[in-house]
UniProtKB/TrEMBL annotation, chains A, B:
GO biological process, one term: salicylic acid biosynthetic process
Cited Gene3D superfamilies: Chorismate mutase (1.20.59.10)
Signal peptide start-end: none
Protein name: chorismate mutase
Length: 119, 119
């Protein structure tokens, strides 16, 4: 009986490992897609940063950020995704972008989140 | 001359505002796409969490994380995107997922990053 249970357990573990491998392959694909989208997003914020620096506009824009958060929370609910996490995610991204806009405005050249066409 | 300069400046500001509006529309689209992909990514990690909990596997897996970081840094370089930021991003996500896996393993029911079919 002991050995039968062990075989069943081994089968169970083997199935779990296979499922884990499949899930991780999907996660890797999602991460690749997200990284490419983030790269494209930052190409846009890079241009926003240059515009803001050229027109001496402040790096942060609290009204815009509030609108973005409200919108992403709604989208997250549509996607059956935790809206608090979507907000945390946007805050993380926006903090990085502002840090970067400030570096651009202060003339730092090695602050790039994306590699510009010139470099 | 003074008024001519002012009109040129006004045109310049109007063009900048229009460009800013366009860039923000693109950023909003990228964010929507990213949120939907994150939702799908977390549906997969949710299943990983349940598997790990069922088989008493640890929530964190340092080898897997090292591989993910190395892979995302390479992808980021391909996308002409800052690899340090890609790594920061993954660390942020993984930290949330581990926090969540631990909550699942400890039997917390309100820890969901995604809404399950039952709820």
């Amino acid at each position: 009986m002991g050995s039968e249970t062990t075989t069943a357990e081994q089968d169970d573990v083997a199935r779990a490992r296979e499922l884990l491998r499949d899930l991780r392959a999907s996660i890797d694909n999602f991460d690749a897609a997200i990284v490419y989208l983030l790269a494209e997003r930052f190409r846009a914020t890079e241009q926003v940063g240059r515009l803001k620096a050229a027109h001496k506009l402040p790096a942060a824009d609290p009204t815009r950020e509030r609108e973005q958060i409200a919108r992403l929370r709604t989208l997250a609910k549509d996607a059956k995704f935790n809206p608090d996490f979507a907000e945390k995610f946007l805050n993380f991204i926006v903090k990085e972008v502002i840090r970067h806009h400030e570096a651009v405005a202060s003339g730092s050249t090695d602050a790039g989140l994306v590699q510009s066409a010139q470099s």
